[in-house]
Design brief:
Largest sheet: 4 strands, antiparallel
Structural class: alpha+beta
Number of helices: 12
Distance between the termini: 49 Å
Length: 409
């Protein structure tokens, strides 16, 4: 496995970092003011989007742009240092996943109506899977009904924690629901496109997360006899579960690399604070526990990054199915590392680390959200353990020669 960045990627890294340094970071005060005024889409983002498009830093995640998952990963890390920055490059969730999904599975009509405007950054979208009444970390539990009625589908049910649904440019949802409750368990679900102006569809509320309200939101949606044409079905009936699995693999690479970017920023802040603040006659970094936190943070970030790059490489070489264990591992490992590093940095800053004077509290909150988003840690740990036990069953008895038990005969 060769994780050395190619000259093309290094050039893109430099170009993207320059854009972040020269345009995105200087816009932070304006973004905070506009978001603080309650704007779900700060206007400054539209200015940044226009500039990024001119610079060719646009839709970088798409395979059609010539970048593999391994090549895109370090770019996602750079964008991740500012949690909203990826939208400026049209690379943000959930749109990136939806664009990949539509790119792979949509009909020509769907591509023209929904994918092309998404690719151009004119509209945004959301992905409606999680439900409040079931443990929807297991997608086979999904209950929302998508019933065929002549040339239409009629949708009834609720969804919640649907990211981006409060965004003023969000014009449609990709909804996963049950089209055939009697089918085999992984073929009951389908995905349909639901425009936001469809009668019976309503965004009920934008749910705060850890007392934070994020622009774009994490919303609760209600569907009451929502009727859409059968042409809004994506790919085929019963394909919803398979489509969701195809969507999640690369998406978790994006999420995890953005997390690593935020952990890197937290470590940089920690080191700067430790170099300038003195307590009990010593700079903070001269205290053994702070030095240990700095060292552990660097080691944990490097370990996490290498595992994510390995996972990206495996997806590129052999497809997402070959990397199911690794995808589960990075989803469990990276958010824990993210929150741990941010927590140490907050402790080094003291009271300031809890305040909005630094980005640390916001970064920690987002890391904590990711321990549940795309499935809670426990689901991924269960997946890893089951794969390990399955492999152990195939080699059962192979460790006996290593045992040193007495011969009772």
């Amino acid at each position: 496995m060769d994780f050395e960045y190619t000259p093309k990627v290094r050039q893109l890294q430099r170009k993207l970092q320059d854009f972040m340094d020269n345009y995105v970071v200087p816009h932070l005060p304006l973004w905070h003011r506009e978001a603080g005024d309650g704007l779900q889409h700060p206007q400054c983002l539209e200015d940044l989007k226009a500039l990024a498009k001119e610079e060719g830093l646009w839709n970088l995640f798409l395979p059609s742009q010539g970048l593999t998952n391994l090549e895109y990963a370090p770019l996602a890390e750079i964008m991740g240092r500012v949690h909203w920055a990826s939208e400026a490059f049209n690379c943000s969730a959930p749109d990136a996943g939806n664009m990949e999904l539509l790119h792979m599975f949509a009909s020509e009509e769907q591509r023209e109506r929904w994918l092309d405007p998404l690719l151009d950054g004119k509209i945004r979208s959301c992905f409606a899977m999680s439900e409040p009444d079931v443990a929807s970390s297991d997608a086979t539990n999904i209950q929302i009904s998508i019933r065929r009625d002549g040339d239409d589908y009629v949708i009834n049910g609720r969804k919640w924690f649907i990211s981006g649904a409060a965004h003023p440019l969000c014009t449609f949802a990709i909804v996963m629901g049950v089209t055939d409750p009697n089918a085999e368990v992984h073929k009951r679900q389908s995905m349909v496109i639901v425009p936001f102006d469809t009668p019976g569809f309503r965004v009920v509320r934008n749910i705060e997360v850890m007392s934070h309200s994020f622009p774009g939101g994490h919303c609760e949606l209600v569907f009451r006899d929502v009727r859409v044409p059968r042409t809004n079905l994506i790919h085929a009936e019963g394909a919803g579960f398979a489509i969701a699995q195809a969507r999640l693999g690369p998406g978790r690479i994006h999420h995890c690399m953005r997390s690593i970017g935020q952990a890197e920023l937290a470590l940089e802040l920690m080191c700067e604070r430790a170099a300038e603040r003195r307590t009990f006659g010593h700079y903070l970094h001269q205290h053994a526990n702070i030095a240990e936190w700095i060292a552990l943070s660097r080691m944990e970030i490097e370990q996490a990054r290498l595992l994510v790059l390995k996972t990206a490489w495996m997806i590129d070489q052999h497809g997402a199915k070959s990397a199911l264990r690794e995808i589960a591992m990075i989803k469990a490992i990276v958010p824990r590392m993210h929150t741990t590093v941010c927590d140490r940095a907050m402790q080094v800053f003291g009271a300031m680390g809890l305040s909005p004077d630094t980005p640390l509290a916001e970064l920690w909150t987002w890391g904590r959200v990711l321990r549940i988003a795309d499935g809670p840690d426990e689901v991924h740990l269960r997946t890893i353990a089951r794969q390990e036990m399955s492999a152990a069953a195939e080699r059962r008895g192979a460790t006996l020669p290593y045992m040193n038990t007495p011969d009772l005969d």
